Amino acid sequence: MLIKTAIQLLCSLVFVFGHIVASAETDLLNLATYAEGTRVPYGENMVVVQDEKTGEKSLTPIAGSEGKLDIPINLNGNSFEINFEMDGGHPRAHFILVADEVTFSFIAGYFGNAISLEGKRGTPPVWQQNGKNIIKVLVSNGVAKLYANDAFVQKVTINEKKQNITYTKLSVTNIGGGYRLYSLKIKGGSDVPAPSGTTTPATGNCMATYTVEGKIHIPCLSVPNAFGGTNVYDIQMQQQAGKMTFDIDMSSIKPH
Length: 256
Fold this sequence. Notes:
Blueprint: H1 2-23, E1 26-27, E2 43-44, E3 46-50, E4 57-61, E5 67-76, E6 79-87, E7 94-99, E8 102-108, E9 116-117, E10 120-121, E11 132-140, E12 143-148, E13 151-157, E14 166-175, E15 181-187, E16 209-210, E17 215-224, E18 230-239, E19 246-248, E20 254-255
Antiparallel strand pairs: 1-15, 2-5, 3-4, 5-14, 6-11, 6-15, 7-8, 7-14, 9-10, 11-12, 12-13, 16-17, 17-18, 18-19, 18-20
């Protein structure tokens, strides 16, 4: 009976965490794994900097150089989402999706023209010149919509040859001095190569425990991630009254 229950429990965990991993964003920069002053392997003349007060990390070009990013992806051109955060004072950079000879330019930033989607330029009124800006690009069924700081900016119909294809690279070019890129994430990709090591090691005491109140604490649950590595989570479960069935406390899930 206990063996059967354990198998059912493991199946439930695989289903729940498989859904979490599948629906999560893919972090293309992975800045948390790099120390301040590190040159990232997917960048050219790009270095990690860290805010002394907040500890927040970002990417910026090396002084006196023009930066570039080339990040391998596997992104379905018919439906995806791209989210990133950038400094508003230096919006000079081009964001381009690449599939062989086909390209989809969704951001082309210049001073005075900070936003672009497939050639349509213009600075939105919600743009923060002296602060951080959150950009979102949503693509579905051949239509691309662009948002800046949660405000809708514009939408365009994507050329047919740029639909239903697989984009294999996301490039950010013409990155000028003073530029800050804080995050760059995608949804809709699969089998995305990791910018760096992605296995989170389990440390400390990882013995699972069961209490008389019917609670199970699993401090180290290893779950496959989108990079082909693993992430380790700390979770808690609660036994249902009168049954050998346990419910996952979703609010308790956290990285180990």
